[in-house]
Amino acid sequence: MREDNCIFCKIANGDIPSETIYEDDTFRAILDLGPASKGHALILPKQHYSDICRLDEETAKKVLPLAAKIGNAMKQSLGCAGFNVVQNNGKEAGQTVFHFHVHLIPRYEGGPVMVSWMPGEASPEELTQTGAAIRSALQSEGHNK
Ligand code: 5GP
Ligand code: ZN
Fold first, then answer.
1. Alpha-carbon gap, residue 61 to 7, rounded angstroms
2. In a mutational test of the pocket of ligand 1, which residue from 9, 33, 37, 92 has the highest number of ligand atoms less than 8 Å from its CB?
3. Ligand 2 centre distance from Cα of residue 96 (Å)
4. Which residues contact 54 (CB under 8 A, 6 or more apart)?
5. Is the CB of 33 under 6 A from ligand 1?
6. Cα separation of 132 and 75, whole Å?
7. Whole-model pTM above 0.90?
8. From the alpha carbon of 86, which atom of ligand 1 is closest?
9. Distance CA 95, CA 88 (A)
């Protein structure tokens, strides 16, 4: 399904032009308009899924192999030393376009690396409590399916 007011639906399906680096029946990969580094790309499914929780399994299975394929091509063509695979879900996590997408951000020798968080602290009790909460939600999710 596509969503009428979604810019990434329009780009992914070719209604709005983009610098396309890869296309198949399921995805279009494009260059980001505001690149964090040279070659910063986005993998967009052609169907609309707002985030990873809505993504269908068949599409999900194909995303990481495609990220690796494009990342390898970036290394060969741009000479980047590595790349980040980034995927934001929810406004608080930095998502600004609510159509699932994966960022591929080439990183170059001597260039900045992505600093994504400051390591914090948690007591063993807190880790146990947090772990129990997530395990319990995972178990009830299994029962709800
Ligand atoms: P998010 O913050 O949702 O994970 O990432 C959205 C990304 O989409 C940003 O990096 C932004 O620069 C990029 N972007 C937003 N609108 C457009 C557009 O119309 N075309 C392209 N190529 N990139 C876009
Ligand atoms: Zn969309």
1. 24
2. 33
3. 12
4. 100
5. yes
6. 41
7. yes
8. 4
9. 5
Closest CA to 100 of 131, 66, 56: 56
Q: How far apart are CA 40 and CA 42, in angstroms?
A: 7
- Tens of pLDDT along the chain (145 residues)? 889 999 999 999 999 999 999 999 999 999 999 999 999 999 999 999 999 999 999 999 999 999 999 999 999 999 999 999 999 999 999 999 999 999 999 999 998 877 677 889 999 999 999 999 999 999 998 665 5
Q: Which amino acid is at 50?
A: S
Q: Which amino acid is at 17?
A: P
Residue 32's nearest CA partner among 72, 89, 70, 75 is 70
The pLDDT score that the predictor gives to residue 1 is 87
Long-range pairs for 20-29: beta carbons < 8 A, 24 or more residues apart: 21/70, 21/73, 22/66, 22/69, 22/70, 26/59, 26/62, 27/62, 27/63, 27/66, 29/66, 29/70, 29/104
